[in-house]
């Protein structure tokens, strides 16, 4: 059976989630499932088949009661299909069986499909399918066949019934055998991470999921400790995982940009200001709702003010990030655009003469404009 280190090797450190043991035991899981959830973990996203990024109803790790044809049962949601919000993967707590649930109006239909006899088998299958995509994605049918036959033989020893011809996994493996293994989707996530690591090589960023559905706003936010400031970054204007259509410009993954913001960081500050994170999240909702992407040279007023009530900042100017600039990603270029908080008087000046003079006055020692709500 797969180990935690093997999952991390395939999915990455941030791509594997483990549960707190006390919480797992309180939910009434079987002892073997507690061990797997707490010591081995679950992959966050596996190829295009599975992701824990679920934005309701029935979020990942939600426990709920449902009627089945045999008896009432308790389930825990594991995740959903990456491209289909109408299905959920769920484990029945009493048996440990893993089911595929179809949703109608947000409610599971009464006849779930059993896809694995145990949670351990389900995680093993996800692991091997992801590994298969990484090692054989795009290979010809002839090249992939020996590899696939070995994978299928290994998985039969783990859960033979799951590979019957009319089952979920059986159908997938048959499609791979006769059509080849599809190349894994490539998005901008790795390229963004590489750019940030090159800029701040010793950084240990903080990260938050927004729980906003794909296509309706940014999915994640990160905060990085730079010289005297927090560097805040959005994740989700661009096509992070290669699962969305390209944006309005040919070759641009998603909308082809991500936002940054720099705010002062005190010596003892452990977290960035909440208003700054909320501002970036709200900008994502605005862009996806109104259909107006940001670009270098843009500017806008905001409702109320940025930060506390004492703040004089009531507008934003946008400029290509002087440090991060534009990077290449599999789906096309991604531009980092810095959002800079300014006063309404400065907004009027920028409208009259352009953004450059205002932004130059706000540049810190590192040459990048800061958003300082105390000025």
From TrEMBL:
Q: This chain belongs to which protein, by name?
A: Suppressor of fused-like domain-containing protein
**The Suppressor of fused-like domain, residue ranges:** 225-375
List the SUPFAM superfamilies. Answer: Suppressor of Fused, N-terminal domain
Quick one: signal sequence residues? none
Look up the domain of life of the source.
Bacteria
One Pfam family cited in the UniProt record for this chain: SUKH-4
Q: Which organism is it from?
A: Nonomuraea antimicrobica
């Amino acid at each position: 059976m797969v180990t935690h280190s093997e999952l991390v090797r395939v999915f990455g450190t941030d791509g594997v989630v483990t549960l707190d043991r006390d919480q797992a035991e309180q939910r009434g899981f079987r002892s073997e499932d507690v061990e797997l959830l707490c010591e081995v973990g679950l992959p966050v996203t596996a190829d295009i088949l599975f992701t824990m990024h679920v934005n309701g109803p029935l979020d990942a790790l939600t426990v709920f009661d449902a009627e089945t044809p045999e008896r009432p049962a308790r389930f825990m949601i594991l995740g959903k299909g990456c491209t289909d919000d109408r299905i959920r993967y769920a484990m029945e707590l009493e048996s440990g069986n893993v089911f595929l649930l179809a949703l109608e109006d947000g409610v599971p239909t009464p006849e779930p499909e059993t896809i694995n006899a145990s949670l351990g088998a389900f995680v093993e299958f996800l692991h091997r399918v992801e590994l298969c995509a990484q090692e054989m994605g795009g290979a010809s049918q002839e090249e992939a066949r020996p590899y696939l036959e070995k994978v299928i033989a290994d998985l039969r020893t783990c859960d033979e019934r799951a590979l019957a011809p009319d089952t979920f996994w059986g159908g997938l493996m048959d499609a791979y055998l006769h059509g080849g293994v599809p190349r894994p989707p490539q998005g901008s996530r790795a390229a963004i991470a590489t750019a940030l690591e090159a800029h701040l090589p010793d950084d240990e960023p903080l990260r938050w999921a927004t729980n906003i559905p794909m296509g309706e706003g940014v999915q994640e936010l990160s905060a990085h400790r730079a010289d005297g400031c927090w560097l805040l970054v959005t994740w989700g204007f661009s096509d992070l995982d290669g699962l969305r259509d390209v944006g309005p410009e040919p070759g641009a993954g998603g909308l082809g940009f991500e936002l940054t913001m720099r705010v002062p960081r005190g010596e003892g500050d452990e977290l960035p200001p909440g208003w700054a994170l909320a501002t970036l999240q709200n900008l994502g909702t605005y862009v996806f709702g109104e259909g107006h992407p940001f670009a270098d040279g843009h500017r806008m007023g905001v409702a109320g003010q940025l930060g506390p009530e004492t703040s004089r900042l009531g507008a934003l100017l946008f400029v290509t990030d002087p440090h991060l600039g534009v990077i290449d990603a599999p789906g096309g270029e991604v531009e980092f655009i810095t959002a800079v908080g300014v006063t309404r008087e400065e907004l009027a000046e920028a409208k009259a003469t352009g953004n450059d003079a205002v932004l130059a006055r706000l540049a810190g020692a590192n040459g990048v404009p800061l958003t300082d709500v105390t000025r």
